[in-house]
């Protein structure tokens, strides 16, 4: 299992609006292709950020699922709705250690 941490820095004061749109219109689409482990907002570090952690079987599974997601017409229609909120985006892969509860 691998985990992808995706961090979206949102225009100041718009995180709530971003989350409402994401939950209402995007979440049902992306969860057909990836397992949501959690979603958080930040209170320290880079503020105005939303952090998602997604689970995949391995890197190959993640690659295949992202291709399917990118080809989904619903996702293609959704992405332009959230782009105006984004200031910066990061993606980081996390591999659980042998003693991790997530392993």
From TrEMBL:
SUPFAM superfamilies: Dimeric alpha+beta barrel (SSF54909). Residues 3-101 form the NIPSNAP domain. Pfam families: NIPSNAP. Belongs to the NipSnap family. This is NIPSNAP family protein. The lineage of its organism: Bacteria, Pseudomonadati, Pseudomonadota, Alphaproteobacteria, Hyphomicrobiales.
């Amino acid at each position: 299992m691998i985990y992808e941490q995706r961090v979206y820095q949102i225009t100041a004061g718009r995180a709530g609006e971003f989350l409402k749109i994401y939950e209402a219109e995007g979440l049902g689409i992306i969860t057909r292709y990836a397992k949501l482990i959690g979603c958080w907002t930040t209170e320290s570090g880079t503020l105005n950020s939303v952090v998602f952690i997604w689970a995949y079987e391995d890197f190959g599974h993640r690659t295949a699922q992202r291709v399917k997601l990118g080809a989904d017409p619903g996702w293609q229609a959704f992405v332009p709705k959230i782009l105006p909120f984004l200031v910066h985006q990061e993606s980081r892969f996390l591999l659980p250690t042998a003693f991790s509860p997530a392993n």
